[in-house]
Write a structure and sequence with these properties.
This protein has 231 residues and is an alpha/beta fold. It has 2 domains: 117 residues, 3-Layer(aba) Sandwich (D-Maltodextrin-Binding Protein, domain 2), CATH 3.40.190.10; 102 residues, D-Maltodextrin-Binding Protein, domain 2 (3-Layer(aba) Sandwich), CATH 3.40.190. A 5-stranded mixed β-sheet has the order 2-1-3-12-4, covered by helices on one side. A 3-stranded antiparallel β-sheet has the order 10-5-11. A two-stranded parallel sheet has the order 6-9. Helix 2 packs across helix 7.
């Protein structure tokens, strides 16, 4: 009943007001790194443009049940749930990097394979939900390849992953937006850029019942604009 009432309220809001002045609650779910590194810093723009939309950001590393949990939309790196409508909103680049202190001590590998054969400590990332270790992704010309590194330390949260690199505990392989501010400050240095893999596709997904929602439509349009800044 709660879900039905929410959907009826959304339909009434959409039909009763113009597309330029949507209002009401908008629940958006996403992962922690996206919430802190992309969505929240840009959110003042959205609030200024649509002051009558009350935004609720759900931050989680699990895959939420968009329909069952009454979530308006979710930002994901996959579009494999056929019960949902998915729009690709952009791409995110990968970067491998390390601290100046790390590079002064160990040097920089000339090829990704040297990470396996040489003495290059890696700070790894594992999924808090599944425990799976994130492999390192690279591309040799047009041919992608990946491997699971031997790690000196592992974490399961993106901000902690960044902290391991800043502390010199290991090189890290992560999405560029997470480390770009530290690179611009000289706290981290990119390596192996010639082997950078294909960017990660990013999608926004929502239930078919939300496709007429003015709130969802304007949010999708706005977040697509935001992601163009990272391509």
């Amino acid at each position: 009943m709660r879900l039905l009432l929410a959907e009826l309220d959304d339909v009434e809001s959409t039909l009763g007001r113009t597309h330029a002045n949507p209002r009401g609650r908008l629940r958006v779910d996403t992962g922690g790194s996206t919430a802190s590194g992309i969505l929240t810093p840009a959110l003042p723009e959205f609030r200024e443009r649509y002051p009558d939309i009350h935004v609720e950001i759900g931050v989680t590393d699990r895959v939420v049940d968009v329909i069952g949990e009454n979530v308006d939309c979710a930002i994901r790196s996959t579009a494999n749930d056929l019960s949902l409508i998915a729009h690709r909103i952009g791409k995110l680049r990968w970067t491998t990097c390390a601290s100046p202190a790390y590079l002064a001590r160990y040097g920089a590998p000339d090829h990704p394979n040297q990470i396996l054969t040489g003495n290059y400590p890696v700070a790894g990332y594992f999924s808090a939900r599944t425990g799976a270790v994130q492999p390192l992704h690279f591309r040799d010309g047009g041919h992608p390849f990946q491997f699971e590194p031997r790690t000196s330390v592992m974490v399961n949260e993106s901000n902690a992953h960044l902290a391991t690199a800043l502390a010199g505990l290991g090189l890290i392989h992560t999405l560029d937006f997470m480390v770009r501010p530290a690179i611009e400050r000289g706290e981290l240095l990119p390596i192996l850029e010639a082997w950078r893999p294909e960017p990660l596709d990013v999608y926004i997904v929502y239930a078919p019942s939300r496709q007429l929602s003015a709130k969802v439509r304007v949010f999708v349009s706005w977040i697509t604009e935001v992601y163009t800044r990272y391509q």
